[in-house]
Design goal:
Blueprint: E1 5-6, E2 12-13, E3 17-18, E4 21-22, H1 23-33, E5 37-40, H2 47-54, E6 58-62, H3 70-73, E7 74-78, E8 84-88, H4 90-97, E9 100-104, H5 111-114, H6 118-121, E10 126-129, E11 135-138, E12 144-149, H7 160-165, E13 168-171, H8 176-181, H9 186-200, H10 210-223, H11 225-234, H12 241-252
Parallel strand pairs: 5-12, 5-13, 6-9, 9-12
Antiparallel strand pairs: 1-2, 3-4, 7-8, 10-11
Length: 265
């Protein structure tokens, strides 16, 4: 699969290489081999994109600090006639269908909640739904778990229990060559490359990823290039904003300012 591949939202995904083959091919081979994969990298680098492109049969749990066990296994809900029925969650649906469970932002989910998935990933291939009378669910052939991890996000913790269950851990960074191929303003790409180099050296903590560059181009088409360049400064974390502003102004050769409302029109 060399792409482009259409994702569920209609966007095109352009495969990248992983171990000498297209990334979607590599991830599908890991599924066939029963090797859970953890994709890690900054937000906006395309972790969700490659997973959606690789696995059309995807059930997703969007993780955050408020995620609970019911978000995985399901919970009781009230019907129109006043009865309460148990509605199965994405983990159970994926297990029964032999499809893929994607745990997005897995490392900000409380470890005690995430532990509900572990019995389905190991040799048992089963979980017990305590909330539904102790029902036992066994995973059908093809069931697979893949997760996303943003190391720089506040509260993200890659616990030993989680890391040990994802035997393949794959770094995802922005492909700036792809950004250029997508006809994104070369100056914005140059800014991103410069800031990414500084980030790698530990000078700053943030650099624009593909998501921000795509947004840049949309803003430039709508409001003009200066507005889009100013937005690159405005979206930077406060502690990095001065450095980002210096780089943006040097590349664009003008006194670009963050987007802000002015006097009454």
């Amino acid at each position: 699969m060399t792409g482009p591949i259409t994702r569920p939202n209609g966007a095109a995904y352009h495969p990248r290489t992983l171990s000498g083959m297209p990334d979607v091919t590599a991830l599908r081979r890991l599924r066939d081999a029963g090797v859970p994969a953890l994709m890690y990298g900054p937000p906006g680098t395309g972790k969700t994109s490659v997973i959606e492109a690789s696995f059309p049969d995807l059930e997703t749990v969007p993780g955050d600090g408020d995620t609970v066990v019911a978000d995985f296994v399901g919970d009781y809900t009230k019907t129109d006639d006043g009865r309460y029925v148990f509605v199965y969650g994405p983990l159970i649906r994926a297990m029964r269908a032999g499809s893929v469970l994607f745990i997005d932002d897995a490392t900000i989910i409380p470890p005690t909640v995430l532990a509900v998935v572990y019995p389905a990933m190991d040799g048992r291939r089963q979980i017990v739904i305590k909330a539904n009378g102790g029902e036992t669910v066994t995973a059908a052939p093809g069931f697979y778990v893949v997760a996303g991890h943003n190391p720089g996000v506040h509260g993200a913790i890659l616990s030993d229990a989680l890391a040990s269950r994802f035997s393949a851990q794959i770094k995802v960074s922005t492909d700036y060559d792809l950004a250029a191929e997508l006809k994104i303003d070369s100056r914005a790409v140059k800014v991103a490359r410069n800031l990414s180099t500084r980030q790698a050296k530990g000078e700053i903590g943030w650099a624009p990823q593909l998501r921000e560059l795509l947004a840049y181009q949309k803003i430039a088409d709508a409001l003009g290039e200066n507005a889009a360049a100013g937005n690159l400064i405005g979206i930077a974390p406060e502690e990095d904003r001065d450095t980002v502003a210096t780089v943006v102004r040097a590349v664009f050769g003008t006194a670009v300012e963050p987007l802000a409302l002015g006097a009454r029109a």
